Amino acid sequence: MQKRKTILVTGGGGFIGSHLCERLLADGHDVVCVDNFYTGSKNNIRHLLDSPNFELIRHDITFPIYIEVDAIYNLACPASPVHYQNNPIHTTKTCVSGSINMLGIAKRLNIPILQASTSEVYGNPLEHPQTEQYWGNVNCIGVRSCYDEGKRCAETLFFDYRRQLNIAIKVVRIFNTYGPRMLPYDGRVVSNFIVQALRGKELTIYGDGSQTRSFCYVADMIEGLVAMMETPPDVTGPVNLGNPGEFTMLELADLVIELVNSNSRKVFKPLPQDDPAQRKPDISLAGKILNWKPQVQLREGLLKTIDYFASIL
Ligand code: NAD
Ligand code: UDP
What we know:
Elements: E1 6-10, H1 15-26, E2 30-35, E3 54-58, E4 71-74, H2 81-86, H3 88-109, E5 113-118, H4 145-165, E6 169-174, E7 177-178, H5 189-198, E8 203-206, E9 212-214, E10 216-217, H6 218-229, E11 239-241, E12 246-248, H7 249-260, E13 266-269, H8 284-290, H9 298-312
Parallel strand pairs: 1-2, 1-4, 2-3, 4-5, 5-6, 6-11, 7-10, 8-13
Antiparallel strand pairs: 9-12
The chain binds nicotinamide-adenine-dinucleotide and uridine-5'-diphosphate.
């Protein structure tokens, strides 16, 4: 059993963050969850509130906070394109000022800090699959830029804190992750399709549906995040975390319709600006340094996610 720590999880009230808080508590740690509930929900962590090892602080990480902890997972940031584009200035602030505030804590306390970066740093990738060496193809003035460039700048900050101050940084590039506790209306494709199929509504395919994504089940993602935090101080990343199985949005829609056993049809809508045409992680580095690879395939993960949405709708 590893040493008991007090661990800060920013964005701990969100989809991935709530699963991470749960996991860290189960591992015997004290968890401090900081969230402004912009896209998270108290419902995600209500079952943890009674635990004597769990603390919740409603706080926006763009403002400084003074806190004593042993490690930080920085997950605070809206992740759905609909949400991060709703207040794009605040999205950039969360990525940049929020990271500076969290890195400041890591610097003062000399503790490890993990940054939830994203496959969006690769933009609309010209290399496929994406390795960590690829620098990306990102529009810096488009509607997705607040998030893409915000997260890229956050990575820059993390690596400068490493070079200048020797902070133990851990940068992971998360590819599309799905599972229970996604918001039913957050606009991401997995939740949209499942909710639409369960309600017998048309599944909204953006563009011609030939664009691809690689979907990682949340339990696998949590394993990867925890494994990365447990690496020695010199392991900084960036490291891709995702499931390399690659699907078109048409394939995803058909699979959801089949698994829900729904009569829903597909309807085509305009493709959002700068929507990447393809996404697939090369996860050899994660395999090498973390001995990690996803275990849950899409069909199995979707069934669990469908059960969840069926229970809350
Ligand atoms: P989410 O929107 O469910 O969770 C984000 C959480 O951060 C929410 O609880 C939200 O209220 C909180 N938050 C947002 N801005 C904040 C601020 N300024 N101060 C404090 N709290 C704030 O999203 P998620 O899918 O759980 O994503 C978690 C992290 O993982 C994000 O940083 C996201 O960029 C990253 N990520 C997620 C995916 C994915 O597919 N889910 C992919 C790549 C990267
Ligand atoms: N998408 C879709 N229908 C929807 C929502 C999304 O076809 O109802 C598409 C979207 O255009 C993108 C893919 O699904 O090509 C993944 O979108 P999501 O917002 O989940 O994640 P991201 O674009 O950030 O990878």
